[in-house]
Amino acid sequence: MTKKIYILLWALMLVALPMSAQKVSVEAKIDSTVIFVGQQTGFHLGVTMKEGQKVQFPQFEPLQHIIPGIEVVETLPTDTQKLDDGYLRVSAHYTLTSFDDTLYYIPAIKVKVDNKEFESKSLALKVLTVKVDTLHPNQFYPPKDVQDNPFLWDEWSRLLWLSAAVLVLFIVSLLIFMRLKSEKPIVFKVKIVKRIPAHQKALNSIEEIKAKSTTVTVDDAKAYYTHLTDTLRRYMMERFGFNAMEMTSAEIISRLRQEEDQKKIDELTMLFETADLVKFAKYSVGVSENDHNLISAIDFINTTKQENAPTEERIEPTVTEKDKQTIRNRKVLKWTLFGVVLVNIALLVYVFWEFIMLIA
User: Fold this and answer.
1) Can you tell me the distance from the alpha carbon of 185 to that of 330, in angstroms, rounded to the nearest whole number?
2) Confidence (pTM)
3) Angstrom distance (rounded) from CA 270 to CA 300
4) What is the DSSP string of 174-241?
5) Is 292 strand, coil or helix?
6) Which of 108, 142, 244, 267 has a Cα at 20 to 30 A from 50?
7) Taking the alpha carbons of 350, 351, 352, 358 in that order, is the dihedral positive or negative?
């Protein structure tokens, strides 16, 4: 039993040794692994350790060599960074240089923590030389001052021509805009007017005839029948669509026979025949006959009227050929203005870009 306890204790010690060794770590890194002769680079040593431990970095004097061929230019102040779990990271910084072109091997650097030595990993530094033409030593020249380059027309000519094109296009677009502004656009308005049905207008006209002619004498019989037949003719024009105002009474009756029943046409035929006799033969009619003809006209209108006649009329504007040409010209001017402005903007952006590239 005691033997097993010893074995267990030895196992725990073996496990704890690597863990204790991991409490302190040293890391070395270099800013650039390849430099030219005489060029400088940074070399850094970082130590991770527990708080309270003391670290001692190697001390190098200026111009002291870390290894033959690599010398220390200067030693920079150390810095400390606090980590988690009570650890600290302390870093030392050095500036190195070399004047021999070769590949250097930098061995592990030793750092003391609580007087115990810990080593970093090894590094490599490649030093390159600048190629020199030893066959033509006279071709070495000192550094040149800032030069004031002369103005070259070849470099600026395209930019100047494009700038002139931008100016011309701007003037053209301005003239087109002024032309559009000076000419007012043609506006067409559609009118919606109230429409009195044909039968209503005819009945209103007959009401006027009745009001003005309570008694029809021989002298005013001609005017009475002229007014009555003209009212019927206008009604027929709107209701049936034929030009009754230019037709004779016989032609009207013949045309109406295609539309209405025979009885109504016969009554209307008597009215037109009586009207023709009064107007052209000075026929004398009685009051009862006048009333009968007036009733026949009213009855004809009421029989043939359209109940669902539209009460509104849409009046479209009249567009002349000159108006159409003006509209086409304005469209062309608008699209031309849009194209000119678009091209001008593109040219302006290009000119600005070219200008920046020339002065850069």
Assistant:
1) 8
2) 0.36
3) 13
4) HHHHHHHHHSPPP----EEEE---HHHHHHHHHHHHHHH-SS--TTTHHHHHHHHHHHHHHHHHHHH-
5) helix
6) 108
7) positive
What DSSP character marks residue 260?
Answer: S
Q: What angle do CA 151, 155, 159 make, to 5 degrees?
A: 110
Among the listed residues 213, 268, 281, 280, the one whose alpha carbon sits nearest the alpha carbon of residue 239: 268
Backbone angles phi, psi at 294, to 5 degrees: -65, -40
Between residues 224 and 64, which one has the greater pLDDT?
A: 64
* Distance spanning both ends of the chain, measured CA to CA: 87
Q: Helix-strand-coil percent breakdown of the chain, rounded to 5? A: 50, 20, 30
Nearest CA to 24 among 96, 148, 150, 113?
113
Regarding predicted confidence, which is higher, 7 or 151? 151
| Token duo for residue 325 | 């040409």
Which 3 state secondary structure label does DSSP give 141?
A: coil
Six token digits for residue 140: 């070495």
Q: Are 40 and 96 in contact (CB under 8 A)?
A: yes
Contact 78, 57 (CB under 8 A): yes
Contact present, 336 and 176 (Cβ < 8 Å)? yes
Q: Which residues pair with 315 in a beta bridge?
A: 191
For 248-276, the pLDDT digits (tens) are 878 877 777 776 656 567 667 777 777 77
CB-CB neighbours of 256 under 10 Å: 20
Q: How many CB atoms lie within 10 A of CB 294?
A: 18
288: which 2 tokens?
Answer: 């009862």
Q: Which helix (H) or strand (E) segment is 263 a member of? A: helix 262-281
pLDDT for 206: 81
Q: Is the pLDDT of residue 192 over 60?
A: yes
Length of the chain: 360
CA angle 144, 150, 153 (to 5 degrees): 145
What 8-state DSSP symbol labels residue 149? P
